[in-house]
């Protein structure tokens, strides 16, 4: 699994994995807005982003974007309504325009840092850390 969300799309890692037939699984796919000590990365909460909100009036956007990009997601919620809406992402598709709009939100910023592996010489994508 890897941190992968609308602000950190992991293009190089996804390409590397796809070339080897490995499926990417997204951790922190909604940015973990309820997490204590969530870092301030200088970007709005994903669910409050204006692009996401404008599309979200019609769809559960962040999860569908990742699924439609070929990434498995692990959404976390204890709220029955949110759990149901997470399952509803298979009932629709985002348009090409919506996918492009969300793709443009990529900033390369991480919500989770992995200090123990950050400087490991075996990690192939250090520049994406």
Automatic annotation (TrEMBL):
PROSITE patterns: ALDOKETO_REDUCTASE_3
Organism domain of life: Eukaryota
UniProt xrefs under SUPFAM superfamilies: NAD(P)-linked oxidoreductase (SSF51430)
One matching Pfam family: Aldo_ket_red
Domain NADP-dependent oxidoreductase: 5-105
Gene3D superfamilies tied to this protein: NADP-dependent oxidoreductase domain
Transmembrane segments: none
InterPro entries xref list: AKR (IPR020471), Aldo/ket_reductase_CS (IPR018170), NAD(P)_OxRdtase_dom_sf (IPR036812), NADP_OxRdtase_dom (IPR023210)
Identification of the protein by name: Rho crystallin-like
């Amino acid at each position: 699994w890897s941190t992968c969300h609308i602000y950190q799309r992991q293009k190089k890692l996804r390409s590397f994995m796809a070339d080897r037939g490995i499926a990417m699984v997204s951790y922190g796919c909604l940015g973990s807005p309820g997490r204590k000590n969530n870092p301030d990365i200088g970007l709005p909460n994903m669910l409050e982003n204006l692009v996401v909100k404008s599309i979200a009036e019609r769809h559960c956007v962040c999860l569908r974007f990742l699924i439609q990009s070929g990434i498995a997601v692990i959404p976390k919620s204890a709220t029955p309504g949110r759990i149901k809406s997470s399952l509803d992402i298979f009932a629709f598709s985002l348009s090409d325009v919506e996918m492009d709009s969300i793709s443009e939100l990529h900033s390369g910023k991480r919500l989770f840092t992995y200090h123990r592996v950050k400087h490991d010489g075996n990690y192939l994508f250090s520049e994406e850390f």
